[in-house]
Design a protein that fits this description.
Strand content: 5-15%
Helix content: 40-55%
Oligomer: single chain
Number of domains: 2
Order of helices and strands: HHHHEEHEEHHHHH
Structural class: mainly alpha
């Protein structure tokens, strides 16, 4: 459901210096020159605090000039420092899943971990940008957290624990028409589990996974039926499906599904030894 990504290679603090330097002869030269030091420090604070909205305050003083910041992202000049950085990030992440939710498909946009409308000074900060599918971006919106949970979303660069599987799928009988539940792994720390649960809730991953689960279960029955008719070892083949899916990531939906299937002794017994319904 959530993935750890390799951080961008470009330096987020240096990019501020480069952006300011490129504006030294423009109409906003003095403004950007005057705020350069504080801007760099705020980007450094973002890095120090891993982008956590609970520890990274907004910058009210730049609100009158917010449009100038947003234009750095929305309308980067050809060959500009931020334009090159953004283009490189879009090229470097060739994914076949959304790193925010794990759903199959190529994410077609960059999302701002801290929303650009609230934190305009981070709108071109590489460590504040990562690929995301349209559904996740719409659900995330400008949310960051609340009083009970000051951080709603897993950070793909800083929350390194999501390199491991953090979501578990439970499949409940009857196995011809099963139901399911998603939960955070019990062996994580309490703060990690709370963050995962917030992330799943705010991106509506439970409900979105439902349609996938129904279709994937049908596909599984067809796959297993074909395996049994050709006298192949069901467990060996499904284990290979699980391991192949894990190459994309431990929390992509295909891996979550096959990992749960292989680990469930009762489900595997049904798949290996029971007759399937005729609607295959």
């Amino acid at each position: 459901m959530v993935m750890r990504l390799t951080p961008p290679v470009m330096c987020s603090v240096q990019l501020v210096t480069d952006v300011v330097e490129e504006r030294k002869n423009g109409k906003n030269a003095k403004y950007f020159s005057d705020i350069a030091s504080e801007w760099r420090q705020r980007v450094q604070d973002y890095i120090t605090h891993s982008g956590s909205p609970a520890s990274v305050p907004r910058w009210p003083a730049i609100e009158p000039k917010k449009k100038s910041f947003l234009n750095l992202y929305l309308h980067p000049a050809v060959g500009s420092a931020q334009g090159i950085a953004l283009a490189e990030m879009r090229r470097s992440y060739q994914l076949n899943y959304c790193p925010a939710c794990g759903e199959p498909g190529t994410p077609n946009t960059l999302d701002h971990y801290l929303p650009k409308t609230l934190y305009a000074h981070f709108c071109v900060t590489p460590l504040n940008l990562f690929p995301m599918c349209d559904a996740c971006q719409q659900l995330k919106g400008t949310k960051t957290g609340d009083a009970a949970n000051p951080k709603f979303f897993i950070h793909p660069y800083f929350d390194v624990f999501v390199a491991d599987q953090v979501i578990e799928l439970s499949v409940r009988p009857p196995y011809n028409t099963p139901t399911f539940s998603l939960g955070s792994r019990q062996d994580m720390t309490a703060p990690q589990r709370a963050l995962v649960e917030c992330h799943v809730r705010e991106l509506d991953i439970d409900n979105r996974f439902g349609n996938y689960f129904v279709e994937q279960h049908r596909r599984l029955l067809r796959q297993v039926d074909a395996l049994k008719r050709s006298h192949q070892d069901v467990r060996v083949v499904l284990t290979s499906f699980r391991d192949s899916a894990a190459i994309s990531g431990a929390n992509v939906w295909d891996h979550i599904f096959y990992a749960a299937t292989v680990a469930d002794a009762n489900f595997m017994d049904y798949l290996q030894n029971q007759d399937f319904p005729p609607f295959l």
